Amino acid sequence: MPQKILITGGGGYLGSIIVPAMLEAGHKVTVLDNFMFKQNTLAQNCSNPNFEVYRGDARDENTLKPLIKDADTIIPLAGIVGTPMCDADKVAAKSTNRDSIVTLVRILSIDQHIIIPITNSGYGIGKKGQECTEESPLSPISLYGVTKVEAEKTVLDRGNAISLRLATVFGMSPRMRLDLLVNDFVYRAVTDRAVILFESHFKRNYIHVRDTARAFKHSIDNFDSMKNQPYNVGLSNANLSKAELCEKIKAHITNFIYLEAPIGEDPDKRDYIVSNARIEATGYKPQYTLDNGIAELIKGYRMIRNTVYGNI
Predict the structure, then answer these.
(1) Which domain holds residue 260?
(2) Is 58 part of any domain?
(3) What is the pLDDT of residues 135-187, one digit of tens each?
(4) 73-76 sheet: strands from edge to edge
(5) Pair (87, 139) in one structural domain
(6) Is 81 helix (H, G, I), strand (E, B) or coil?
(7) Rounded distance, CA 263 to CA 71, Å?
(8) Residue 260 β-bridge partners
(9) Which terminus of the chain has a lower count of CB atoms within 10 Å, N or C?
């Protein structure tokens, strides 16, 4: 059944893919975004009568109230995303990633649905060889991870909500980000033909940006059977170390070279593998592989030569 959906931060990397996907599914979509990156990535949707957009701050209760009034589902994408960006402005990170969710929960009616994305980086450093499930303890090791874990607790304690613990996202988007690991390494392979790895054995999970949109749509379509639980969302065959990821990229760009740094360390200490069995049991399956994403990024980087597309 078509819904009225409010998406905060809908002009960002995820939102620029999710918004048109929701419109294509027949939903009415309203976006609230401050457009801090001066992007116009939703322009192609303006001719759609089911699309509406407002410029504003998702932390402002007076801005939110009239927009949530008729919404069936709220997808709060607005956030200060990534460890470097959060560390650069800790006040904004806390007020956007956590406090805005507290405000949203307070002013929503209990009948309204929330589907919130957080990050599976909340698992921090996992046990070697052991997959993190949704029952594993959350031990975030960055301010970004802490604020997202706190936001998840707020919505799940409230109820009538779903949390999607997204793996590291990759793939082309109209509001591109080059600072995400796969996107970054492929960019370096295309432009520099080389990358230096720090602590190359650190592992994490990955998911294509279009599969994140499909996860949100799946959650809307199956809300009653999925509600009040967190779900890991990633590629079950892609719990890879940074070195293994580089091997994948090298299969596409044969003259790509990657070397382990003899000294130094990765400031991002996340190291874990993840089980996505819970969401897969609901019928959700990703459609895009890492190889699909690498191939599309190579094409995209024939156009992009500008680090303005990073969140740092």
Answers:
(1) 181-203+237-273+288-309
(2) yes
(3) 999 999 899 999 999 999 999 999 999 999 999 999 999 999 999 999 999 99
(4) 51-55, 28-33, 4-8, 73-76, 113-119, 161-166, 229-233
(5) yes
(6) coil
(7) 52
(8) 197
(9) N
For residue 128, the model assigns a pLDDT of 84
Q: Which residue has the tokens 């613990």?
A: 165
CB atoms within 10 A of CB 296: 17
SS3 (DSSP) at 299: helix
**Token pair listed for 4:** 């009225």
Q: Are residues 191 and 257 in the same domain?
A: yes
Tell me the average pLDDT of the chain. 94
Residue 170 to residues 71, 173, 191, 265, 291: CA-CA distances in angstroms? 29, 9, 18, 23, 11
Q: Which amino acid is at 253?
A: I
Token pair belonging to 80: 């200060």
Tell me the C-alpha distance between 169 and 181, whole Å: 8
Distance from C-alpha of 173 to C-alpha of 148, rounded to nearest angstrom: 22
Asked if residues 20 and 44 have their Cβ atoms less than 8 Å apart, the reply is: yes
Q: Total structural domains in the chain?
A: 2
